[in-house]
Write a structure and sequence with these properties.
Blueprint (H helix, E strand, L loop, with lengths): L12 H53 L20 H10 L4 E9 L4 E10 L8 E10 L1
Antiparallel strand pairs: 1-2, 2-3
């Protein structure tokens, strides 16, 4: 007489495989969302740096066209801008919220030029490190 061999019972294995696949998919999706958040943050920082570059180049162009009054373009950090700098300061602060601006003009008579240092500092988040964009340019007399 032959003995009947009963196949091993595998009830629930498909459910276990499906649950494992869902867990792995969830971990992958969380990683993707985290990477997207970091990419958005980096894009925002890059946008602010681009705005700072445009602002500094614009001011250098204005100063180059007004060399006779170049000494009036000095601005200390957190100081009130004069009438010449007010439009530039307002435009820059509109493009870069919370920007701290400074402009230093130094006469270099031996080289027959002026050295212009423009600094724009901003902080994107309250607890993040401050970003600073600094440009040094030379304007001929």
């Amino acid at each position: 007489m032959k003995t009947l061999v009963r196949p091993r019972c595998q009830d629930g294995i498909a459910l276990l495989e499906a649950m494992l696949a869902i867990v792995i998919l969830g971990i992958g999706l969380l990683g993707t969302v985290g990477m997207q958040a970091r990419a958005y943050s980096a894009l925002s920082d890059a946008g602010m740096r681009a705005e700072a570059t445009l602002a500094t180049e614009k001011l250098i162009g204005v100063m180059n066209a007004d060399v006779a009054n170049i000494g009036l373009y000095n601005l200390a950090e957190n100081a009130s801008p004069n009438a010449r700098l007010t439009p530039w300061v307002q435009e820059t602060r509109a493009a870069i919220p919370g920007a701290v601006l400074s402009v230093a003009v130094a006469d270099q008579p031996a080289q027959n030029r002026y050295q212009v240092d423009i600094s724009i500092r901003w902080q994107r988040k309250a607890r993040s490190e401050a970003n600073r964009h600094r440009v040094t340019s030379y304007i001929a007399r």
